[in-house]
Amino acid sequence: GSSTVVTGGGAGDFVTPLAGWPPGQRLNRFHRTKFLTCRYKGAGEAGLSNNTYASFDRAGIVLTSCAQACSFARVRAWLSFLIGRPTGGDIQVEYAPDGKEFAMSSISTGRMIDNGSDPVRGRVVWMPAKSIWITAMTLIAVIGGPLTFTWSAFAVFILLTAITICLGHSVGMHRLLIHRSFSTHIWIEHFLVYLGTLVGMAGPFGMIYAHDIRDWAQRQRDCHDLYAHRRSFFIDAFWQMHCIVALDHPPRFVLEERERRDRFYRFLEATWMAQQIPLGLALFALGGLPWVVWGIAVRISVSLTGHWLVGHFAHRDGHQGWSVDDVAVQGYNLPRFGLVTFGESFHGNHHAFPDSARLGIEPGQLDLGWYFIRLLARLGLASAIKLPHTIVPRRGLRRIDAIETAGDSHPPYHAAGRAESRPRVLPPCRNVSIPSSPLGSEPAVVDRSGDYPGSRSERSSGAGTRSCKKFLHQSETS
Questions:
Q1: Backbone torsions φ then ψ of 421, nearest 5 degrees
Q2: 196: Cβ–Cβ under 8 A, 6 or more apart, which residues?
Q3: Which of 82, 152, 214, 462 has its CA at 20 to 30 Å from residue 49's CA atom?
Q4: Beta carbons of 439 and 377 less than 8 angstroms apart
Q5: Which of 122, 123, 134, 121 is nearest to 242 (CA)?
Q6: Which residues, including other chains, have CB under 8 Å from residue 12's CB and lie 6 or more apart?
Q7: What is the dihedral of CA 173, 178, 183, 184, to 10 degrees?
Q8: What φ, ψ does residue 225 adopt, rounded to 5°?
Q9: Are 430 and 465 in contact (CB under 8 A)?
Q10: What are 110-155's pLDDT values in tens digits?
C-alpha cells in the first residue's frame, strides 16, 4: 500500500496520527510491522549506524495519543527509552494512512526465492506424521528405557548418538549438504548424509527445506514467532517438534539439480523413517531388545529434543560475539554445550558466518565437527574448505566486543544481570578475504552466486575493516 514519510527533528515537527487507530491501543508485533516503523537517523553516535530500526511494542510502549498528532520530542523520548541512550538527529516515521498496510518486502536467500512472500503471516499447523513419530519414540524411551537398561545398551546409545549427531547431522547434513562448507568424495558425502538421516529428524530434502525456510525467515526484518522461537518454553517445544508454519505467502523453494537428481538422496527422502529398521535388526542380533530400545528410541528422542533445546536457547539469549543488522532473529552461542553438541551450540558464530566449516571460532570453543573435517583434509579427503576469513561476510555483520574489564576475555552475555559492561558494537565487516587456508589445502571457495549467506543483494562490498580482518585471521590461524 501507499505510505507517508515524515522526517524532522525540531520541537515544532509533528507525526500525524494513524487514521482510525483507537487511542490507547497497544501496537502488537503485527501492527508494528504493517503500520508503523520508526527509523533513527542519527549518524555518528557510538554503537549506532544510520537506519537503526526500533519498535515501540518491543519495549511495551503504549501509544496513548495515536488519535492525535505526536510531537517528535515524544517519539525521540520513546526511542531513547528503547535503545537505552539519548538520540539526536532526524527521526523518520513511516505509516500507512487510512489503515492500509505496507507491502512486506523480503529477500531471497539461496534456495528460497522471494515471490511476494511474507515471513510473518501464517498459521501453525499440526503435522500428524511428525508428531506421532517423535511421540512414539519418546514414549518408548521413557517407558522402555528404564526397563531395559544395561550398561552395554547405554554405551551403544552414547556411541551411536555421537556418530549420528557429529558425523551425520552436524558435518554431513548441516555443514556439507546444506551449506557446502567443504567438498569431499561423493561416497563419503553419501555416507555422512546417511548417518544424518539416522538421527531421525527428516530425510535430506526435508532437512534442507526445514533449515532454509527458517533461515530465510530469520533474515527478514520480522518473521513468524515459530521461526524466531519467541513463544514460551512448552509452546515452543510443541510447535517445533509437532507442527510447521503454513505461511500465507511462502517463498519458492528451488532445490539444486545436484541434490534433486541424486538417486541415493531421493531414496533416503522416501524411506528416512524406515532407515531405522536395518540398524534395529543389527542391534537386536548383537544385543537383544535393550540395544534396540537404547540404540533407536532413546537415541532418537534425545537427539530430537536436544536439537530443539539448542535452537530454542540459541535464538533467545546468551553469549554473542557477532550481530547482524536489520534481521528478525539474532543467533547466540551456548559455550557450555559445545562438547555435547559437537560445535552446533555456537549458533551466534553460525549466524555470522553461515558458510564456515568451523563453528567454534572463538578461543576455547570446542568444535569436534571441525576436528573431523580437519582430519578428512589431512587425509586428502576434503577440500575447498570455507572459513570465516575466506568468505564474504554477511551484510550488516558487526563484531560485538566488551569494554575491557579485569579478567574478562570473552564477549559479554546479554541476559539481564549478566553483562558487566555495555557491549561495544564495531563497524561492519566488509569482504574480508585471505586467499590461503590455514590447513594448507587449496584456496577456499569464497563466493558462489545465489548460495549462502544469501543472494547477491544481501552481500556487502568495499574494503574490510581492520578489527574484523584481524580477528578473523587470528582466530583461524590459532
A1: -150, 155
A2: 164, 168, 169, 172, 173, 174, 177, 204, 207
A3: 214
A4: yes
A5: 134
A6: none
A7: 30
A8: -60, -30
A9: yes
A10: 899 987 899 999 999 999 999 999 999 999 999 999 999 999 999 9
**Given a cut of 60, is residue 478 above it in pLDDT?**
no
Which residues have CB under 8 Å from 309's CB, separation 6+?
Answer: none
Amino acid of residue 44: G
For residue 128, how far is the Cα from the chain centroid? 26
Question: What whole-number distance in Å separates Cα of residue 434 and Cα of residue 18?
Answer: 51
What are the cell numbers at 249?
A: 505467502
Quickly list H helices, 293-404. Answer: 299-314, 338-341, 347-352, 368-378
Segment holding 404, helix H or strand E: none
Q: What is the length of the chain?
A: 478
* pLDDT score of 136: 97
Q: How many CB atoms lie within 10 A of CB 177?
A: 20
Q: Tell me what the pLDDT averaged over the chain comes to.
A: 73
Please name which of 375, 423, 420, 419 lies closest in space to residue 400, comparing C-alpha atoms: 423
Using one digit for the tens of pLDDT, what is the confidence trace for 284-302? 999 999 999 999 999 999 9
Question: Closest Cα partner for 279 from 288, 292, 266, 268?
Answer: 292
Place of cell 508454519: 245
Contact 423, 411 (CB under 8 A): yes
- Judged against a pLDDT cut of 80, whether residue 172 lies above it is answered with yes
- According to DSSP, the residues that pair with 252 across neighbouring strands are 113
* SS3 call for 286: helix
The helix-helix angle for 186-197 and 263-271 (nearest 10°) equals 10
What tens digit of pLDDT does each residue of 175-223 get? 999 999 999 999 999 999 999 999 999 999 999 999 999 999 999 999 9
pLDDT at 317: 87
Question: Which of 136, 146, 134, 155 lies closest to 283, judged by CA?
Answer: 155
